[in-house]
Design goal:
This protein has 331 residues and is of the alpha/beta class. Helix content is 28%, strand content 23%. Keywords: Hydrolase, Oxidoreductase.
Length: 331
């Protein structure tokens, strides 16, 4: 592995911290190198806020100037306006690594490619091209002003990171969440650390809807809100043959939430669907699940309940949430 790959791997790892939390935007990471020293490592964190490249450039500015910012760095308009005030050669000794081609279009945020073209870093290293027609063209914009560009560093890993974004352009991206012990048991109350629960609630806050099975509603009587983050609760779809649910359980009393019940699921609409459930739900949806997210707590238990499923997984990324091991996998 050469040095460029090492730097890009760090940008990719940073982006994974916010995987799916940027919906409907892709997860993107960026790193700034100055005289062989990493001076910024950032990732896009939420749709409508500053992109990874902008956050990284702001951190690089703080390092080079020894000054703090007097505005909200996540306000993309203010961030771009500030960076445009810098001299065009301010980052001339910097190389920026980014996991996705800088955007050339103007949407909820200004164009990152145009900003980089103005600031003229020494070099821009890109993992993979933007696959969305109309969003591409960033490289051309950079090369037009003489910036050196290198493309294809860690591209396989970058495309894995990008896969949910590509899927929800065409249809629903379906993520199945599992919390279990180290020996694969799922019964016996909460199994996840506070950090894992917070992460789940962050995903709930941005998903298009949550999908759960009827047995989960009847037996667990869940709330399924976002109390660990303080954000609005997701809409819920209950997959069940019969509508015989107790409307007094917390699930139905969350304000500004829509709860629907159906025995026929449609995954054709572009969206992000988060599924929580047991083995029955997993087997029912097995052909529709794209990714699996596991939170594995460091505990062994004799509880009999587990996932009685047969499926082969491809591991994509792992991290820790508190004491838990977090595994992202592809079906």
């Amino acid at each position: 592995m050469n040095s460029n790959e090492i730097y890009m791997q760090q940008a990719l790892k940073k982006a994974w911290e916010y995987q799916l939390r940027t919906y409907p935007n892709p997860a993107v990471g960026a790193l700034v190198l100055y005289r062989n020293e990493i001076i910024a490592l950032e990732a896009h964190q939420k749709a409508g806020t500053s992109h990874a490249e902008v956050l990284a450039l702001l951190e690089a500015y703080k390092f080079l100037s020894k000054k703090e910012l007097d505005f909200d760095r996540f306000d993309s308009k203010k961030a771009h306006e500030f960076l445009y005030t810098l001299p065009s050669n301010y980052f001339k000794e910097c190389t920026i690594f980014v996991t996705l081609e800088p955007c050339s279009h103007v949407g909820r945020t200004p164009s990152c490619a145009s900003l980089l073209a103005q600031l003229k870093p020494k070099k821009v290293v890109i993992a993979t091209l933007d696959p969305i027609v109309g969003h591409d063209g960033g490289i051309k914009r950079l090369e037009e002003v003489g910036i050196e560009v290198e493309v294809g560093i860690c591209e396989k890993e970058a495309l894995e990171l990008l896969e949910p974004f590509l899927i929800w352009q065409e249809r629903a991206f379906v993520l199945f969440k599992i919390a279990q012990t180290s020996n694969g048991k799922i019964g016996g109350g909460y199994l996840s650390s506070k950090e894992s629960l917070t992460h789940v609630h962050q995903l709930r806050a941005v998903c298009s809807e949550m999908l759960i099975g009827g047995n989960t509603v009847r037996e667990d009587r869940p709330t399924l809100d976002c109390r660990f983050t303080g954000e609005p609760a997701p809409d819920i779809t209950i997959y069940a043959k019969e509508d015989n649910f107790d409307r007094d359980i917390p699930l139905f009393s969350v304000s500004e939430r829509y709860v629907s019940i159906t025995n026929c699921l449609d995954f054709s609409q572009p969206s992000f669907i988060l599924v929580e459930g047991g083995g029955g739900m997993f087997n029912a949806l097995k052909e529709n699940i794209d990714w699996l997210l596991q939170y594995q707590t460091p505990k062994l238990t004799s509880h009999p309940l587990g996932y009685e499923v047969e499926v082969t997984l491809q591991y994509l990324f792992q991290d820790k949430k508190g004491v838990d091991l977090m595994l992202w996998s592809k079906i």
